[in-house]
Design a protein that fits this description.
Acetyl_CoA_COase_a_su; fatty acid biosynthesis; fatty acid metabolism; alpha/beta; 2-enoyl-CoA Hydratase, Chain A, domain 1; 2 domains
Length: 316
């Protein structure tokens, strides 16, 4: 069952009305095409008004939708011969992070990403996309393998944050994240990052160091959730919407701050409205960048990545 956001209700109601009229016209052999066309034009106008002027909090809501496409859904469409690999070779396998190998239009690649579930059962299995240390160590193992075999790395980011449970802390959550940051900054193979939903805190950043960083139009990327910020600043989690407005967590904000390189357009209403459209857009961006990054020698690649990291942000 699809989630309905409060600001989307006028769209949903009009879509249902159009569907009812179409069903009535078909079942009763009545020509209502003029009335339906008028409603469809009105629907397009309402959609444009709502989705072209979303507030940061509304974008947060869209980025968290359960029906939003996951890493594995994108992988299956973009890299159909993907083979998933498991385990960190230290402790175990973390299903909140998936990774493996495949080919992108003939280019061998390693693909890694956070994985959420599409329902409650899957979310429990995937720990709601919140990785344990073994997840980050699995990702690092696959990145080092990619470096060895000169495969570009594609990263999909979608997590509320790293899991902060007792077991995760005992197994070295902070150390696992820190090591990933260090190793990704000097990995001798191209890395392309795509934020597809939530980019939450160090849990996202642990897979977020790369040569190119893209965000889907309705995704977010921040050091903390709006709820977390409002509870710290104002001791009131209900002020999350106010926090979102000042956090600069949307793709437009982060593009202005040089945190990301490009925004990948989504269909009106979000990526879940047309996964084929957004997958095609992601694939085009990947194919536009990977060949040129592969051609760079290792020193040039690492120097460019270092400069990119140092240039993040605007200073006044």
């Amino acid at each position: 069952m699809n989630s309905t956001l409060e600001f989307e209700k006028p769209v949903i109601e009009l879509e249902e009305k159009i569907s009812e009229l179409e069903s009535f016209a078909e079942s009763n052999n009545v020509d209502l095409s003029d009335e339906i066309d008028i409603l469809k034009k009105k629907l397009d106008k309402i959609k444009s008004e709502i989705y072209m002027s979303l507030t940061p909090w509304q974008i947060v809501k869209i980025s968290r939708l359960q029906e939003r496409p996951t890493t594995l859904e994108y992988i299956n469409l973009i890299i159909p011969d993907f083979i998933e690999l498991h385990g960190d070779r230290f402790y175990g396998d973390d299903s909140a992070i998936v990774g493996g190998i495949g080919t992108l239009e003939g280019i061998p690649v390693t693909v890694i990403g956070h994985q959420k579930g599409k329902n409650t059962k899957e979310n429990i299995q995937r720990n709601f996309g919140m990785p344990h240390p073994e997840g980050y160590r699995k990702a690092l193992r696959l990145m080092k393998q990619a470096e060895k075999f000169k495969r570009p790395v594609i990263m999909f980011i979608d997590t509320p944050g790293a899991y902060c449970g007792l077991g995760a802390e005992e197994r070295g959550q902070g150390e696992a994240i820190a090591v990933n940051l260090l190793e990704m900054s000097r990995l001798k193979t191209p890395i392309i990052i795509v934020v597809i939903g939530e980019g939450g805190s160090g849990g996202a950043l642990a897979l977020g160091i790369g040569d190119r960083v893209y965000m889907l139009q309705n995704s977010i990327y921040s050091v903390i959730s709006p709820e977390g910020l409002s509870s710290i600043l104002w001791k009131d989690v209900s002020l999350a919407e106010k926090a979102a407005d000042i956090m600069k967590l949307t793709a437009k904000d982060l593009l202005k701050l040089d945190v990301i390189d490009k925004i990948i357009e989504e269909p009106l209403g979000g990526a879940h409205k047309d996964i084929d459209f957004i997958s095609k857009n992601i694939k085009e961006y990947l194919l536009a960048e990977i060949p040129s990054l592969i051609e760079l020698d290792r020193d040039e690649l690492l120097n460019s990545r270092y400069k990119k990291i140092r240039d993040i942000g605007l200073w006044e």
